[in-house]
Amino acid sequence: MKQSAPAFRTRFAGALLLAASLAAGTSALAETPAAEVRSSIISNFKIGSDEKRFGPFEFVGGLEMVSPNRLFGSLSSIRFRDDQKHFVGVLDTGHWMTGRIERGADGSLSGLADVEITPMRDRVGKILEGKALMDAEGVALKDGKVMVSYEQFHRVDLYPDPGFETSRALDTLPIPFEKKQLRANRGFETIAVSPSSSPLKGGTLIVAERSLDDDGNAYAAILDGPLKGKLALAHYGDFDATDGAFLPNGDLLLLERRFNMAEGIGMRIRRIKSTDIKPGSVMDGEILIQGDFGYQIDNMEGLDTFTAADGSTHVILVSDDNHSILQRNLMLEFKLDERRPDPSADTAASH
């Protein structure tokens, strides 16, 4: 059914976000790996408006999702398979979530199917659910491996693909920062693999949420490839990086989230040119879209991109509800128009 969430619900979610994010992860109470997910369709991104165009983004559709499975929620990051339907996600409670998206006759999102939630294992094969040791924040797929970035106990672990759901972490990629430089709950939320044809030649990028250097920029690093090394992300105000994904040309789309008591929840997407992603640089870029209480957003934490069958670039965002009844699990889909606008024509401003 169609739905338009009341604005007050989102405002309450913002008021409780900070407290909820500090709570311990949900204990392991999964009845079975299977998770029935019920979805309500979100038809409009801007509340109370039929507008579809937001700068270079066209809103395709979205979902608000709930499940009787008590482990469902706290989705931190998502990556889609090559078929653009099946996905791998990580929950910050130390769980995998896999499944596939379903679409309606018009091609927009209609629900999730075949969803399974399974506990993650550490390097010795132990199941240690919760935020202390298994606070999974980012996920990426590369060369038959699933890469997961964790904060609190900061690291990037590698799992076999397929088989990650039941396997221990097989290896760890070194992070070129001392652990004391990284804030406990503000570590590397973003991990993304660049295209092999890009300047990074398939290199893996990590970006910290809010672990800042002496200049106030967020720590970042290229972990492998020909441009391996440290760099940073320009950090502005209360917006923190929560996920990112590369476009086919090597540019990076970076999802950033804001929360403060004065302004509440906000999200934006910044585009960083491929040529600006290199050791020693401070990455920065154009803000393509921004949303606040007037939009269908919550605690937006995950972003992925893929190329659809018609050649268009799609961007999917997901939110982390912190297992709070006052927050929502959202999945939002946009189409990115990468054509350069005619400067003489009226174009939609970013929001």
Sequence-ordered SSE layout with sheet pairings:
Blueprint: E1 2-3, H1 7-21, E2 38-42, E3 53-54, E4 57-66, E5 75-80, E6 86-91, E7 95-103, E8 109-119, H2 131-134, E9 135-142, E10 145-151, E11 155-160, E12 171-173, E13 188-193, E14 204-212, E15 218-222, E16 229-233, E17 239-246, E18 252-260, E19 264-272, E20 282-283, E21 286-291, E22 300-307, E23 313-319, E24 329-336
Parallel strand pairs: 1-2, 16-20
Antiparallel strand pairs: 2-4, 3-4, 4-24, 5-6, 6-7, 7-8, 9-10, 10-11, 11-12, 13-14, 14-15, 15-16, 17-18, 18-19, 19-21, 22-23, 23-24
Please describe the structure with a list of short key phrases separated by commas or semicolons.
mainly beta, 351 residues, 5-stranded mixed β-sheet, 24 strands, globular, 2 helices, 5% helix, disordered C terminus, 7-stranded mixed β-sheet
Describe the 3D structure.
The chain is mainly beta. The protein has 2 helices and 24 strands. The strands form 5 sheets. Strands 1, 2, 3, 4, 22, 23 and 24 form a 7-stranded mixed β-sheet that branches. Strand 18 (252-260) and strand 19 (264-272) form a beta hairpin. The longest helix has 15 residues, at 7-21. The radius of gyration is 19 Å and the shape is globular. The two termini are 27 Å apart.
